[in-house]
C-alpha cells in the first residue's frame, strides 16, 4: 500500500515507514530530493534510514532514492555506451584486498570500456580510492578530465566524494547510526558516467535479486549482482556465490562455485589484504605475474565476470581464461601504467 494523495514530507514518510507501509518509487525519489537539498534534519534522515532498514527496503524505494541521487550528482559526459562499473557496497567486514579495483583494470586491458566508481574506505582498511592512490593514480579528476581519460585509454576512475556533494547532508546521520542503511546501497547504483553494465558485489545475499531488478529499472543492459556464502561482496573462491544476473530485462539467480570457473578452492584467510600500501603491493604482484595462488584466482574469478558482463567473453569461464591471458601477457600491468601516466598528465589540464 502506498499513499500519493498527500504531500510527502519527512514526517509523513517516517510515519508510513514506522507503520510498515512502503513508499512508492515517486515518493522515495521525493524524500531523497529533500535530503539532497539539505532540507531534512539529521534526526529525520536517521529516522527514515532506520525505519527503511527495519521494514526492509523495497525495489521501488531503492530505485527512487537512486534516481534522486543520480539527479543531484556531477556527471562524466561520454557519448558511447557499453560502459562497465565494478563498484560494490563494501561492508562485508572481511578485510580483503581491493579485488574489484584489480578486476576493473584487467577488464579494461581486455577491451572493456570501464568507468570505475569508488570511494575511500568506509568499513575496510582501504577503499578503491585509497589503493589506486597508493598505486600512483590521480584519483581527483574532474568530470571533464575523467571523460578525457576514458576516451584516451578506455578506463577512468571517479572518486565518489567529488561526484556526490549533496550526499554530505546524510554523512553525519550515517556515521552516528553506525549500521548499514539504504545509503550503503546507493553508491554502486549512481555511476556518474551512466555505466550500463556492472559487476556489483553486495554484503547482503538476500538482496541480490532486488538490486539486480533495481539496476534494470535504472536502465542497465547487463549486470551481475554477487554475494558469496562466506560473506564476501565478491565472487568467492572459498565457497559458492549467489549470482543474480540481469540481461534483456530479465533477472536470473543461480549459484556459482570456484570449480564452475575452472578455479581451485582456497581458504578465505588467503585473500586477506591490509592497508592501501599492502593492497597496492598485492595488485602489482598479481599484475607482474608473481602470484599463482588465492590472490590471483579471486581476481581471475571477478575479472572474468567483468569481461563476460562487458561483452568480451561468451561465458564466465571464457572470461576467466581471458583474464589469465591478460595478466600473463603483461597487458594488465601495462594498463595500470597507462592509467597512472594519463591521470597524472590530466591533473595539469583544466
UniProtKB/TrEMBL annotation:
EC class of the enzyme, as a word: transferase
Chain residues that bind 5-phospho-alpha-D-ribose 1-diphosphate: 88, 91-92, 98-101, 116-124, 128
Residues of the Glycosyl transferase family domain: 82-332
InterPro entries: Anthranilate_Pribosyl_Tfrase, Glycosyl_Trfase_fam3, Glycosyl_Trfase_fam3_N_dom, Glycosyl_Trfase_fam3_N_dom_sf, Nuc_phospho_transferase
Keyword Magnesium carried by entry: yes
Residues bound to Mg(2+) 1: 100, 234
Keywords, alphabetical: Amino-acid biosynthesis, Aromatic amino acid biosynthesis, Glycosyltransferase, Magnesium, Metal-binding, Transferase, Tryptophan biosynthesis
Pathway listed: Amino-acid biosynthesis; L-tryptophan biosynthesis; L-tryptophan from chorismate: step 2/5
Gene Ontology biological process: L-tryptophan biosynthetic process
Cofactor binding description: Binds 2 magnesium ions per monomer.
Protein origin, superkingdom: Bacteria
Cellular component GO terms, alphabetical: cytosol
Residues involved in anthranilate 1 binding: 88, 119
Subunit-level organization: Homodimer.
NCBIfam families registered for this protein in UniProt: trpD
Job description of the protein: Catalyzes the transfer of the phosphoribosyl group of 5-phosphorylribose-1-pyrophosphate (PRPP) to anthranilate to yield N-(5'-phosphoribosyl)-anthranilate (PRA).
PANTHER family in UniProt: ANTHRANILATE PHOSPHORIBOSYLTRANSFERASE (PTHR43285:SF2)
Family membership noted in the UniProt record: Belongs to the anthranilate phosphoribosyltransferase family.
Protein's name according to its UniProt entry: Anthranilate phosphoribosyltransferase
Amino acid at each position: 500500500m502506498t499513499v500519493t494523495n498527500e504531500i510527502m514530507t519527512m514526517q509523513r514518510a517516517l510515519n508510513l515507514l514506522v507503520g510498515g507501509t512502503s513508499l512508492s518509487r515517486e515518493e522515495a525519489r521525493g524524500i531523497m530530493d529533500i535530503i539532497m537539498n539539505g532540507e531534512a534534519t539529521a534526526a529525520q534522515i536517521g529516522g527514515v534510514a532506520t525505519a527503511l532498514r527495519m521494514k526492509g527496503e523495497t525495489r521501488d524505494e531503492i530505485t527512487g532514492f537512486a534516481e534522486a541521487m543520480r539527479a543531484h550528482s556531477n556527471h562524466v559526459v561520454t557519448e558511447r555506451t557499453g560502459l562497465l562499473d565494478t563498484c560494490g557496497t563494501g561492508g562485508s567486514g572481511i578485510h580483503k584486498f581491493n579485488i574489484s579495483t584489480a578486476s576493473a583494470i584487467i577488464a579494461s586491458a581486455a577491451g572493456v570500456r570501464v568507468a570505475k566508481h569508488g570511494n575511500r574506505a568506509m568499513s575496510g582498511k582501504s577503499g578503491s580510492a585509497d589503493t589506486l592512490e597508493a598505486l600512483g593514480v590521480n584519483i581527483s579528476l574532474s568530470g571533464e578530465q575523467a571523460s578525457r581519460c576514458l576516451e584516451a585509454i578506455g578506463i577512468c576512475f571517479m572518486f565518489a566524494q567529488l561526484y556526490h556533494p549533496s550526499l554530505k547532508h546524510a554523512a553525519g546521520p550515517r556515521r552516528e547510526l553506525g549500521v548499514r542503511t539504504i545509503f550503503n546501497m546507493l553508491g554502486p547504483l549512481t555511476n556518474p558516467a551512466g555505466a550500463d553494465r556492472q559487476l556489483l558485489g553486495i554484503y547482503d545475499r538476500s538482496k541480490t535479486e532486488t538490486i539486480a531488478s533495481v539496476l534494470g529499472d535504472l536502465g542497465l543492459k547487463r549486470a551481475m549482482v554477487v554475494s558469496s556464502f562466506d560473506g564476501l561482496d565478491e565472487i568467492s573462491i572459498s565457497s559458492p556465490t549467489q549470482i543474480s544476473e540481469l540481461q534483456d530485462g530479465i533477472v536470473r539467480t543461480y549459484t556459482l562455485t570456484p570449480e564452475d570457473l575452472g578455479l581451485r578452492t582456497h581458504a578465505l584467510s588467503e585473500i586477506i589484504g591490509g592497508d592501501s600500501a599492502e593492497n597496492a603491493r598485492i595488485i602489482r604482484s598479481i599484475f607482474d605475474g608473481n602470484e599463482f595462488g588465492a590472490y590471483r584466482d579471486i581476481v581471475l574469478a571477478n575479472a572474468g565476470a567483468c569481461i563476460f558482463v562487458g561483452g568480451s567473453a561468451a561465458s564466465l569461464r571464457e572470461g576467466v581464461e581471458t583474464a589469465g591471458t591478460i595478466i600473463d601477457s603483461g597487458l594488465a600491468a601495462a594498463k595500470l601504467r597507462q592509467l597512472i601516466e594519463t591521470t597524472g598528465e590530466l591533473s595539469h589540464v583544466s
